[in-house]
Amino acid sequence: MAKTDIDITAVRGDTIALGVELLDEDGELITDDLDEAYFSCKEDPNNDEYVFQKTLSDGITKVSTGNYTIRVAPEDTENLDVGTFFYDLEIHINDDVYTPLIGKLKLEQDITREA
Q1: How far is CA 38 from the centre of its chain?
Q2: C-beta of residue 3 within 8 angstroms of C-beta of residue 103
Q3: What are phi and psi of 46, to 5 degrees?
Q4: Is the pLDDT score of 2 beyond 80?
Q5: Considering the entire predicted model, what is its pTM?
Q6: How far is residue 106 CA from its own chain's centroid?
Q7: Tell me: domain 4-108, CATH 3.20.20.150, correct?
Q8: Cα separation of 90 and 78, whole Å?
Q9: What is the largest CA-CA distance in the chain?
């Protein structure tokens, strides 16, 4: 499974929804279900503290064979400082561990806020 670098720009406090299609080395959809999955976000990639983390039981959903949706809820980012964070998607299938997605998450200032 190849690693893809993708930078994401989002507005602080908005829902972030990402569709992920998991392909094997031959470009075929991975048919095995994931044993575990983690979409992790940190201020510093070398730090142990997560800004937020999504899992199969909280934010990562199987849509169909080889296709998953990652949902970052508004409350995950609404109180963060505007700036750049680091994220990755790590998945576990059988005894293998892959990181198919990695990059930076840039949070921009939200203009409209509830009164």
Answers
A1: 7
A2: no
A3: -90, -5
A4: no
A5: 0.92
A6: 13
A7: no
A8: 24
A9: 52
